[in-house]
Specification:
The structure is a single chain. The chain is α/β, with parallel strands linked by helices and 195 residues long. It has eight helices and four strands; from the N terminus they run βαβααβαβαααα. A four-stranded parallel beta sheet has the order 2-1-3-4, sandwiched between helices.
């Protein structure tokens, strides 16, 4: 069962690289207790590889997506995921349309980071809470009108653009993914906290 599902359009540019950054960050902090992270695309062609540009841009920033195999997003994937992180608002809406149950735990990457960073001080990342508790707190904060920026929710799709655009995508994903990991688990989560 996938714990964290990362979603974009074709599952060949943004979500494979974002998946690897999130995996890396969680593994660095949580070790073997890190949740599984996988990705899919709203119109992906099953079995496609990540674009060579996405692989190269990710590699420049220390993640390897060369073995990525694309998957088409399905309602079953969404139902299995404990957290769905999308690259753009349109992907969040598609996910909610495929599975109404998943809407509460589906966020754009930037939206979730902002919500986590804006949580009241009573719920800091270092508190003895699981990452799942942090997701629930972010969902409640969103429902109460918490931090949002509807004008900056998306990570731009680099498909068909210059390699520099892919590099910018990887740079952006690295930074937002690191902030996501800090927001979910802080700097020192152990297996005991996840038990």
């Amino acid at each position: 069962m996938a714990s964290i599902l990362v979603v974009c359009t074709g599952n060949i540019c943004r979500s494979p690289v974002g998946e690897r950054f999130i995996q890396r960050g969680l593994a660095e902090v949580m070790g073997a207790a890190a949740p599984d992270v996988v990705s899919a695309g709203t119109i992906a062609r099953d079995g496609a590889s990540a674009t060579p540009e996405a692989v190269a841009a990710g590699a420049e920033r220390g993640v390897d997506a060369s073995d990525h195999v694309a998957s088409l997003l399905t309602p079953h994937m969404l139902d299995e995921a404990e957290l769905v992180v999308t690259m753009a608002a349109e992907h969040r809406e598609v996910a909610a349309g495929l599975s109404h149950e998943v809407a509460r735990r589906t966020f754009t990457l930037k939206e979730l980071v902002r919500l986590l960073e804006d949580l009241p001080a009573a719920a800091p990342p270092a508190a003895p809470a699981t990452w799942r508790d942090r997701v629930a707190a972010a969902a409640a904060h969103r429902a109460a009108g918490g931090a949002r920026n509807a004008h900056d929710e998306d990570v731009a799709d680099p498909l068909g653009m210059s390699f520099e655009t892919y590099q910018a995508m990887a740079w952006e994903l690295e930074g937002w993914s690191a902030r996501l990991v800090r927001g979910l688990v802080g700097d020192r989560v152990t297996a005991e906290t996840e038990a």
